[in-house]
Request: fold
Amino acid sequence: MIRASTNDYTLNIGVGTDPWVERGTIADFLCSGDTERRNLAHAKDICPKAEFIRLDAHFLPFKRQVFDKVAILEVLEHLDDDKKCVEEINRVLKESGQITLSVPIDNIINHLSFFNYLKHKRHYLIAQISKLLIQNGFRMEEIKVSGGIWDLISEFIYLVLKHLFRSSYREPNFLRKRVEMEYENLPVRNQTRGRIILLNARKVASLGTCLGI
Reply:
């Protein structure tokens, strides 16, 4: 879903504990932000050429129209004000810039993930996250639903081993393959079986820009 080219200036909001955006980026210009210094330090080891900054997603410390693309994955559900964050992303994106976003689906599978459910302030349906973006100056381009019950099982095993037995977890091959299939093969709008909404949206040019103002 993240289609950054080498010349794009990309912002990643929310590095987290597993900096896979930094690990897989092809962009020559990547700026990654997080609230936690240890997450930034870990990501810096993975991708030393990127810029790293502590930031609050509600108040992005950048001028207007700086970035070609913004990635914000598994972040909105943690924020006090998701609308304010989307407004800020629109502000720092260039005209026709792209946002790549993922959020948890509001369904029974995610409710069963009690550990994550307690950490989240909200979950979303496709209509809700689409409305949030459209009302704040974006045009929807691509929507995908991913994950499922096997992903939930793998997560549960990981959490039990980590928090109860202080043990590391290496996902068995048969389970990993089933999780991968859930992330590849679900129907686009199957909100009952999936766990994650993945989407791309494009910033709509303002009236002033269209008129050359």
User: Anything to note?
Assistant: Residues 9-104+121-146+195-205 form a domain with the Rossmann fold fold (CATH 3.40.50.150). The radius of gyration is 18 Å.
